[in-house]
Request: fold
Amino acid sequence: MSAYRTHNCNDLRPADIDKQVTLVGWVDTVRDHGGVIFIDLRDREGKTQVVFHPEINAELAKLAEGLRVESVIQVTGKVVARLKTAEVDATNPDLATGEIEVEADSLRVLNRAAVLPFQLDRNVANEDIRLKYRFLDLRRPEMQRNMILRHRITKTMRDYLDEQGFLEIETPILSKSTPEGARDFLVPSRLTPGAFYALPQAPQQYKQLLMVAGLEKYFQVARCFRDEDLRADRQPEFTQIDIEASFITPEDIYSWVEAMLKRVFRESIGREISTPFPRVTWHDAMDQYGSDKPDRRFEMKITDCSDIFAESEFRVFSSAVANGGVVKAINAKGFSPSVGQVESLTQTAVEAGAKGLAYIKVREADNLAEWKSPITKRLSQKEIDTLKQRLNIEDGDCIFFAAGPWEESCTILGRVRLECANYMELLKDNTDVDLFWVVRFPLFGWDEESQRFCAIHHPFTRPVPEDVEKVLKGEISTDLCAEAYDIILNGNELGGGSIRIHEKDLQDATFRALGLDDATIQEQFGHLLSAFSFGAPPHGGLALGLDRVVMLLGGCSSIREVIAFPKNNRGADLMSESPAPAEPNQLRDIHIQVKLPEKLRQKLEAEGGQA
Reply:
């Protein structure tokens, strides 16, 4: 196999008995059984047990006994069968090589390991320690499994897209800053003082320009960068499978992505999924589940109760309806939340925009006096009876309400719904795969802070055919729909895309609807509008979050588990200690002077950092 070894540590089987072999790898364990030394030798492929007999070679056994775990060694010896008799069974059915072992006749220590900062065979609660010593953390079998799974998924996607005629084309990393939804990472230019590149949030404009260039089908395993606050499924740098094609409709995208994911599931985790995937409109997803990426593996749907409370004496509900809003409710069947859980659910509702969280704990469905809630005394018997029927209220249920604008109320209950499911363990041990499309998103939203319209996806998204004329005429509202689509797996957005605008006049009208003036449009998007004036084809595409796909298929709780060298939740790489201050001469060469606000400078100095 190589100058160092004849086999990997997962290769040997009973058919190899009596062969002379050489293995290399890391010492996984060292065990002394009455003077006989056993070492589990590990490489990327698996483990092989190596045995050292002191009666045959005492010096070799002593050398083996003194090894620390994670030392790198080379062993040569003969493959033998493990002892298996009526009295003693030394085989290991949990190990692929569990029927054999290697009797060592030579041992070469390639590199001795120091004392480990943590044990690789135990769960380490402190993630920062794992990230600081990521090169050790990656040796753990579960992390190696994640990296192998990532490779297989990426290769499967590449192979599928190649078969469909897509060309893999790289686009620039050093780009131009444009308003596309998140903060850009800026890179100062040494050759152009005072000017900056931006790292791409996505290859959006470049892939559209490739369509203008006539390449028709493009894909890329694209690195993307966004300067955002971090969480379990977000990193400052991430990878997406970027797809774009010309002369297509959404049906083409659905067909390609469904077939690709079907193959990915089969070839990476051995699971068959059904196609085509169901489609849910954005309005229905929000109305029923309170999310544009709903988890449909449990019921607890949101129910509209506006008509029940339109004339209610409970003014919180009736005034919401009178002002054009709604009253929505969910029934968490069989859920009896503790005081602490109610407080947590209320906080969740407040963070989503509510002033509080109205709820009813039902103890006896037919006895209003047993309904534990601050609001029941303000409800009429008719309202109670209608509510019971509509929500199928029974003993032991808990009802949660939201009242106000439709989207806000849906969002509030959507978040409460998910937290209830977590408390109720509705998804514990759930192995369902619920893949579906969310379609017909709003084209524009209204930004209260800036008092102007904003793009829900991005400003290059095409309106549905019936709304194109409205955009061209400047008849802008939040009722316009986009020809956009997201792919959802078990309450997680795997990716999204849209049919793009390819006409100069429609793109220009969209920019103006977003409040951009002539100078801004020309400065930031002049190259794109110029391209559209030279015969741009109809085109569209989609991007899948590769990190998230691997995380979900691998059963992980964070994308940090499937990225080789991730940042922590503060955006820091603890292993390489970045970000780090730049040397004065580096700053001089790029014409940058760092001047921190006094309070921040004092804070950094107090924490022992550099100001």
Summary: The mean pLDDT is 94. The first helix runs from residue 58 to 65. The chain has 18 helices and 22 strands.
